[in-house]
Amino acid sequence: MTLTRTRPDAPAARPVDPRRLLRLARLDMTLLWRNRTALFGVVGLPAFFAVMLLVSDGNGHQSAGVPAVLYTGTGDLAFFLLPAVFMNLVSVFTARREELTLKRLRSGPLSDAEALGGSVLGATALYLAQSAVIVVIIATALDGGLPADPVLMLLGMLLGAVVFALLAMALSGVTPTVEMAQLTVIPVLLVSMLGSGFMFPLEEAPVGVRAVAQVMPLTPAVEIARTAYLGRDFTVDGDHGALGLVETWTACVPALLTLAAWIVVGAWLARRYFRWEPRRG
Fold this sequence. Notes:
The chain has 281 residues and is mostly helical. It has one domain. It is 69% helix and 1% strand. The two termini are 14 Å apart.
């Protein structure tokens, strides 16, 4: 059964009730807190990177013209999409499908968008909270100041959350059990860590590798977060020079378009592979 199939007793489209979304998001946070294994992956990994920022003195090392620890910190603002949104939702959707929870939610008063949107809202709120901690660390402990363009930074983060929520829906559909969900996310996690530029400048990579990295889903989110925060051109082919407000948005247009393209791709994959009921066979 696909994401677009509707119940015979329900209209094709129903209005979304924000109160229901908030209640489901709050329920998700409660269940996550009670699941220590899931909590470790979703919260433990970002906490580890946050602690590394606090204890690292950088040793004067530079990355792309800025302190290495500041470079990594601004990359964390996008990287946290993986544990908080992607890894979290793959496990949530897989577990609820196998436990028939999704089927029961769908057979009740909730619309499809509400049944899934509550989890997405909760994961996104968790991601934004983790990112807020990093902003505080950058602004205080790292003396990096506040974001130069918080609106652009937030836009990139939210678009990234949409992308990885859709990819999580798709991957959950081909993940047979919640135990396997811990493994199926690993390739995406490793490739994103190595190829998105969140820790190491992609400009040092071979041209072919850089071209592939530019179209990966996490890379544009990293570009936007770092460029918007530092007010300098940190797109893959940027010169790291200072930018004005309009120049910052202009520099990030390709990254914004890449995220928009991934939203289209992610929506197609979710429609194709997401399942409401347990896998058979």
